[in-house]
Design goal:
Blueprint lengths: L18 H7 L5 H13 L10 H8 L3 H13 L3 E5 L5 E6 L9 H7 L3 E3 L59 H8 L2 H14 L5 H12 L5 H13 L5 H13 L5 H10 L2 H10 L8 H13 L4 H15 L4 H13 L5 H31 L17 H12 L1
Antiparallel strand pairs: 1-2, 2-3
Helix pairs in contact: 2-4, 3-4, 7-9, 8-10, 9-10, 12-14, 13-15, 14-15
């Protein structure tokens, strides 16, 4: 077979990828993990320090935030990067180092300095916090495939030195036989779930999709309400791929989420809109709870308001009453919703109309005051006092007649 000659006829910007990564690390890693690692290199190619977030990476690859976190922990286990967390266990910085088998030359050392990502919430300002590529991250890769490379088999937790790793007991997905499928479909609950799924997807279910949904019910033991909610939310966000939904279902099983309320709370905790609400209100270290979650669902599900509008209402609440009040923010959003305001420009227009009406009202008051002045009344605190008129001669005669 003839050899293939590879040429490059382009001067576009390039991203440095060590050959050792391609030869020794990439071959044994999950493909999705490799994508995320390469994307991190690409993000850090433009400057010495840049920013990103877990949600940004998840949106880029149409993954869940759980998938991105799993990939980052995998590469940390391979000692190609270092993750730093704050007191609330939120990821704040990522430091990448060269694979240890790469001989560090001055050029390579300079390239390593490019591999630093800081998260805006808590910038990673110490360039030595992760150590050097050779001393802090010696290569201990032995060629074995870690347990957490299976995207659907549960997450392997990193154990302490000397302890065995504890794998989350999430059941593996099974292929059901035709006989088993027929038995499942005799159940009314299964029939309803499959029917609702077809309604949301607006098409008949494929064989594989039916297998996955039955896996949620049979092996993961998700309730009918949870499955309906999962499919509804994914379709609403234009994520109609069954494998995307499956990742969320597995994530719920890993976290032992067994109720619809808990599922909604977990989804809100990872929602970009919820994060913007918490940031605007100054809520840190916890998810939305109770009444807060109910208002969140009204704004996002019932009223279908965009995140920037909800965030603006929360900020105006703080500016107006100087405290967190979901009820007050709801009154603002309800007013905008009734006036069909859907964007920030719509709100600006309503604000302009309000100020114009206020100006006209003030001008009308000034006009009325001028009119009173023209009629002979004084412009002071007694301008509205009706002056009395007396006939003093008549009063004097009446007084004298009474004296007699």
């Amino acid at each position: 077979m003839a050899e293939i000659l590879l040429k490059r006829d382009s001067r576009t910007a390039a991203t440095y990828v060590p050959n050792t990564f391609i030869d020794d690390y990439m071959t044994h890693a999950d493909g999705e993990f490799v994508k995320i690692y390469l994307y991190l290199l690409r993000c850090m190619n433009s400057s010495l320090e840049t920013t990103c977030s877990i949600s940004d990476i998840a949106d880029k690859f149409d993954h869940t935030e759980k998938d991105v976190t799993r990939a980052l922990k995998y590469w940390e286990k391979m000692q190609l990067l270092c993750l730093k967390f704050n007191k609330e266990e939120e990821l704040t910085s990522i430091c990448l180092s060269e694979p240890a088998s790469v001989r560090v030359t001055p050029d390579a050392a300079a390239q390593t300095a490019l591999y630093t990502v800081s998260v805006p919430a808590d910038p990673f300002t110490d360039p030595d916090a992760c150590g050097t590529a050779q001393s802090a991250y010696p290569c201990v890769y032995d060629g074995t495939v870690p347990a957490d490379t299976d995207a659907y088999a549960g997450t392997a937790k990193q154990a302490a030195p000397g302890q065995a790793e504890e794998v989350s007991p999430v059941p593996q997905r099974a292929d059901y036989t035709k006989q088993q499928l027929a038995q499942f479909q005799e159940d009314e609950t299964v029939q309803e779930v499959l029917f609702v799924a077809e309604r949301y997807l607006a098409r008949p279910l494929k064989h594989t999709e039916m297998q996955v949904i039955l896996y949620w019910m049979d092996r993961l033991e998700l309730s009918q309400d949870m499955i309906d909610y999962l499919i509804e939310q994914c379709v609403a966000k234009n994520h109609k791929d069954i494998w995307y939904m499956n990742k969320i279902a597995v994530s719920w099983a890993e976290q032992k989420i067994r109720t619809l309320t808990a599922a909604k709370q977990e989804s809100a905790g990872h929602s970009q809109t919820a994060r913007r609400i918490k940031k605007a209100f100054g809520i840190y270290g916890r998810d939305l709870l109770g009444e807060e979650l109910q208002y969140y669902e009204k704004w996002t599900d019932e009223m279908e308001l965009p995140a920037e509008l909800i965030e603006l209402a929360c900020k105006r609440t703080i500016d107006s009453i100087h405290k967190v009040s979901f009820k007050y923010a709801h009154s603002i959003l309800e007013g905008w919703h009734k006036q069909n305001a859907r964007t920030l420009n719509d709100v600006k227009l309503l604000d302009a109309q309000y100020l114009e009406a206020k100006r006209r009202q003030m001008n009308a008051g000034k006009t009325a005051a001028v009119a009173h002045t023209a009629n002979g009344t004084t412009r002071n605190g007694f301008a509205n006092f009706k002056q009395r008129t007396y006939n003093y001669e008549k009063l004097e005669r009446e007084l004298l007649s009474n004296v007699r």
